[in-house]
Amino acid sequence: MSEGESLASLRARIDAIDGELLALLSERARCAESVARVKRDNGEEPVFYRPEREAEILRRVREENPGPLADDVIVRLFREIMSECLALEHPLTVAYLGPEGTFTHLAARKHFGHAVTTTPLASIDAVFGAVETGRAQFGVVPIENSSEGVVTHTVDCFMDSSLQICGEVVTPIHHHLLSQSAGLGEVRQVLAHAQALAQCREWLDTWLPHAERHAVASNARAAELAAGDGSAAAIASRVAAEHYGVPVQVEHVEDRADNTTRFLIIGTATTRPSGADRTSIMLSTANRPGSLYALLKPIAEAGISLTRIESRPSRCAQWTYVFFLDLLGHQEDPEIAGCLEQLRETADTVKILGSYPRAAT
Length: 361
Fold this sequence. Notes:
Its main location: cytoplasm. The protein has about 350 residues and is of the alpha/beta class. It contains twelve helices and 15 strands.
């Protein structure tokens, strides 16, 4: 068989496979429409988006992926298929900390796919408010960065909110220097979110020590400002560079190659167990000797993995604190449920912020 005949045979096979894929995708979409009809016919308020169900599917396809496509590629493809099928059942609106091109925007797309309507908002408070008032079904907010720690504004919002955490996204953060200037020597100021400036401090000290640093509301806003000022540079994502039309002068200016940020998905409904979950809780107790030990003791005795603990001022009385904890497991798991019962006897306040599928890392 000649090379031309061999290529023709392979292309014919690819065309046949594409036809099979198209038929299967259409069948899956019709099944999604049938699921929506069944849910509506039950007479109760239907729940269309089930984070635990999507997490189970994505975990399964990752585990069963035979290659040669990478696991992350397979997960991304299935995420988009599920996003489009969910849109047939019930379109979703997702609020996020904007504007367009922020890492929170990228996290929203990574978690929900491109078939949802995304709404950029100016503050974390506004994202919480949009979900609480029903203007959006879900919200996406940053919670912690591997280099700079917790986002305290997000933690504080949970003190006064009844919203539940129903998912998380862990995203690698790669910062780029964007500028209309001809070179680094022309840059007189660097614009970025305060967290991004902190994550690139060493690089800036080395390569732009003469440039003033100005914190702005977001990296996307920095890119927007740099688009119209040749003496300014922005630290932002490649998506922001493309969206605002600012050339990338230097790639990867973050100080740590493993720089990552964790984002939370917030909503109004509780999430069922997925088999690989995390539970976030808020505890408060009187300021007395041994109070923190008393809170942590039931967790240690139950053999539960504590993955994060943060303290914040309670805003109720001076020098009193609220503790935020992440536990591995779901609140319906017997060991977690038992631990929560003990904590209710020990702590002044126990608030479950949500149990949700853990993000694949």
